[in-house]
Amino acid sequence: MEASEDSELCFPQLLNASCIRTKRPHYETLLTNIAVASVSLLTVFLNLLVIISISHFKQLHTPTNLLLLSLAVSDFLVGLLFFFQMMFIDGCWFLGDLMCTVYQYLAYVIASTSAGAMVLISIDRYLAVCHPLLYSTQVTQTRAQLSVCLCWVCSLIFQTLNLQDVLQKPGRFNSCVGECAFVINYVAGLADLLFTFIVPIAVIMVLYVRVFVVAVGQARAIRSHIAAVSLQRSGKVSRTSELKATRTLGVVIVVFLLCLSPYYCVALSGGDTLLNGSTAAFVLCLYYWNSCLNPLIYAFLYPWFKKSVQFIVTCRILQPDSSAANVL
């Protein structure tokens, strides 16, 4: 790579083998680094609250919350990865080819795991709203745990096969020293598009359309039978709770799709697509931002999350038998 006399190299000692650092005003670089670090810390902190809440309080040990726990773990890892995004601001990667490959591999694994978690959440809501009797007998804690484990294992295996070219020889697609290129060939890109985007979206849309139709009917039925006996009324409270949970998780899924779609629109717009520079930074940051939004959605729409956070920040969670506290 030819560099002009006034250009700044990522590795000056390597001369023309080094990538050229992107020149930006000092204040712009400083503000960008502060923004990235802030979002990363906020994402880690908020999702850690979700992880602690669901893991600690016994009332929250439900199949649905276990799926949310899996999503929170993936979002937590996204927050950690987001720190490395600061290295792409000036176009220089200083951690070497191996760490670049690890970063890329983890990013893809987490993306596919998040998509899998969204599908599991959609299936959970479909059974809870459309088949409540089946849900209470078939959807158990053990089966939810097994589903989550399979989701993570399948994501690891799928992305290992999908990125085998990069994993076998880290840095093979870098054009200069200091670059961390994201490369998707046609076959790998098509597989990633199919199993991480098209299939999950198709399943989610079909299930939630059905859930929406049934939920609307149930909401009308509840409003038209307000003066029922107490036993019937208690049953309506349960159904109302399920409908509220469905609405909340529907918001989570819609936000997820909005944040993930631009990545696939950009990364898979052609055959062999090379993602680096500002385009990669934008679509990846949008995906990372989704991981910060999920806990905020819980905070606004889930009363149990607010109560759990109060226990955590006031250190009441350290008291004996705090796991049995009422947070619902």
UniProtKB/TrEMBL annotation:
<dbReference type="InterPro" id="IPR050569">
    <property type="entry name" value="TAAR"/>
</dbReference>
<feature type="transmembrane region" description="Helical">
    <location>
        <begin position="105"/>
        <end position="123"/>
    </location>
</feature>
<feature type="domain" description="G-protein coupled receptors family 1 profile">
    <location>
        <begin position="46"/>
        <end position="298"/>
    </location>
</feature>
<feature type="transmembrane region" description="Helical">
    <location>
        <begin position="66"/>
        <end position="85"/>
    </location>
</feature>
<dbReference type="InterPro" id="IPR017452">
    <property type="entry name" value="GPCR_Rhodpsn_7TM"/>
</dbReference>
<dbReference type="GO" id="GO:0001594">
    <property type="term" value="F:trace-amine receptor activity"/>
</dbReference>
<keyword id="KW-0807">Transducer</keyword>
<keyword id="KW-0297">G-protein coupled receptor</keyword>
<feature type="transmembrane region" description="Helical">
    <location>
        <begin position="249"/>
        <end position="269"/>
    </location>
</feature>
<dbReference type="GO" id="GO:0005886">
    <property type="term" value="C:plasma membrane"/>
</dbReference>
<feature type="transmembrane region" description="Helical">
    <location>
        <begin position="281"/>
        <end position="301"/>
    </location>
</feature>
<keyword id="KW-1003">Cell membrane</keyword>
<feature type="transmembrane region" description="Helical">
    <location>
        <begin position="193"/>
        <end position="216"/>
    </location>
</feature>
<keyword id="KW-0675">Receptor</keyword>
<keyword id="KW-0472">Membrane</keyword>
<feature type="transmembrane region" description="Helical">
    <location>
        <begin position="144"/>
        <end position="161"/>
    </location>
</feature>
<keyword id="KW-1133">Transmembrane helix</keyword>
<keyword id="KW-0812">Transmembrane</keyword>
<dbReference type="Pfam" id="PF00001">
    <property type="entry name" value="7tm_1"/>
</dbReference>
<comment type="similarity">
    <text>Belongs to the G-protein coupled receptor 1 family.</text>
</comment>
<dbReference type="InterPro" id="IPR000276">
    <property type="entry name" value="GPCR_Rhodpsn"/>
</dbReference>
<feature type="transmembrane region" description="Helical">
    <location>
        <begin position="34"/>
        <end position="54"/>
    </location>
</feature>
<protein>
    <submittedName>
        <fullName>Trace amine-associated receptor 13c-like</fullName>
    </submittedName>
</protein>
